[in-house]
Amino acid sequence: MNVTALATPAPERRLALVPAVVERLVQAGHEVRLPRGYGEPLRLADAEYERAGAIVDDDAASTADLVLVMAPPAVEALTSLRPEAIVAGFLDPFFQHDLVRALAERGLRSLCVELMPRTTIAQKMDALSSQASLAGYAAVLLAAERIDKAFPMMTTPAGTIAPARVFVIGVGVAGLQAIATAKRLGARVDAYDTRPVVEEQVRSLGGRFVTFDVGETGQTEGGYARELTAEQLERQREQMAKVVAGADVVITTAQVFGRRAPRLLGAREIDGMRPGSVVVDLAASSGGNVEGSVAGEEVVTTGGVRIIGSHPMPAKVARDASLMYANNLFHLVTHAFDDGVLRGPDDDPIVDGVLLTADGVVRSEAVRTALEGSTP
Ligand code: NAD
Fold first, then answer.
1. Which of 1, 182, 256, 318 lies in disulfide reach of 13, CB 3.0 to 4.6 Å?
2. Which class does domain 2-126+319-372 fall in?
3. CA triplet 242, 247, 253: central angle to 5 degrees?
């Protein structure tokens, strides 16, 4: 196949292809063409891609069979693609309605990694997990850098410093990595999730799982959290307020598949925190877990609490994030195509999961529902 990747505009610094993965694609018999300067966000020279077997070609997109993207492309970028081209990568389908409509209207097929089934066989193609893991790590480092106290306990002749108290809300892939990272830095970590099954995982990382009575919770067959009602979320906020007030750092990671992120902390809970404390909202770009958080920005409240909506968080460790993402895409390409032909969704559960648009229609029912709720 003729494979290319679209350049990613700032502030995104991650790439869909790195030289090591270009080499693997070329070895697997694909031709890789990339626009000049593709690797610039990571200071990777064209020559490095060429050494890996890529051809530098500014018109690569117009001849490609497969177009890899790190972030949802601009709708205008689709006009240069062949009608047979397949677009693959992060497409943010529940929020990028115009893009999804344009993909369908142009009859383009698209493979959306956000729709990857969370199954064992799909793990190596699971870009949500690879990036969430790095996001959890980066969120803790950012909080540690921004807060005005040390993370570990220190006993010194000048006095004893208490360990920082970190509260992680939402213990999925990002939350687990956040707990592990905060523990490694010496913090005391509390964690909460509406899925009680994660309690054991929190304990195994040395964290304390806190429980709140919010009525019936649980998870879907796919392993995602069920959405709480507005009343349940209010009960959760009320009960969480005390733990939040005692925390130096709160990291929120809660998502509900296909919906706006749940509002976990309101102004009341934030106002209860000590001045100088830090809240990192990893869901800032999908609606925000925290009242007042802004994607890509840091806001300090009048009470002196710093709310970090940094986005995209994995871009803070863009080199590793790019390698993991490119590997995820390599495995997807290897799995989903047979001799350059995309497997049929009826024959393969992974293709069935990720194939977002084909034959002029949006295949995912969850995305169709989201589109119906918005005007073109
Ligand atoms: P996610 O990003 O959708 O959500 C993050 C966390 O927020 C989840 O743990 C969720 O339960 C939690 N959450 C949602 N609403 C909440 C609320 N009101 N309060 C507190 N927490 C709330 O989740 P994810 O990290 O993508 O993981 C989802 C599930 O999939 C997990 O069970 C994970 O272990 C599993 N998973 C499985 C595989 C696999 O088997 N291949 C791969 C990745 C993830």
1. 318
2. alpha beta
3. 95
Tokens of 155: 């006993």
Tell me if 2-126+319-372 shares its fold with 147-311: yes
- The pLDDT tens digits of the residues spanning 82-117 come to 999 999 999 999 999 999 999 999 999 999 999 999
DSSP state of 126: -
> Residue holding tokens 């051809």?
55
From 168, 177, 194, mutation site for ligand 1 pocket: most ligand atoms within 8 A of C-beta: 194
The helix or strand, by DSSP H or E, that contains position 3, with its residue range, turns out to be strand 2-5
pLDDT of 61-86, one tens digit each?
A: 999 999 999 999 999 999 999 999 99
* Residue 376 to residues 74, 96, 102, 291, Cα–Cα distance (Å): 16, 11, 10, 28
Q: DSSP characters for 13-72?
A: ---S--HHHHHHHHHTT-EEEE-TTTTGGGT--HHHHHHTT-EE-TTHHHH-SEEEESSP
Which three-class secondary structure state does DSSP give residue 295?
A: coil
Q: Where are the domains of the chain?
A: 2-126+319-372, 147-311
Is 259 designated active site?
Answer: no
Sequence-ordered list of residues with C-beta below 8 angstroms from that of 339, at least 6 positions apart, any chain = none
Rounded to 5 degrees, what angle do the CA atoms 83, 88, 89 make? Answer: 145
Q: Is 343 a catalytic residue?
A: no
* pLDDT tens-digit series, residues 282-313: 999 999 999 999 999 999 999 999 999 988 99
Active site residue 110: no
The alpha carbon of 198 and the centre of ligand 1 are apart by a number of angstroms equal to 9
* β-pairing verdict for 165-169 and 249-252: parallel
- Predicted confidence at residue 10, as pLDDT, reads 82
Which alpha helices (DSSP H) does the chain contain, by range? 19-27, 46-51, 60-63, 97-105, 127-146, 173-184, 199-204, 230-245, 267-271, 318-336, 349-354, 365-372
pLDDT of residue 226: 87
SS3 5: strand
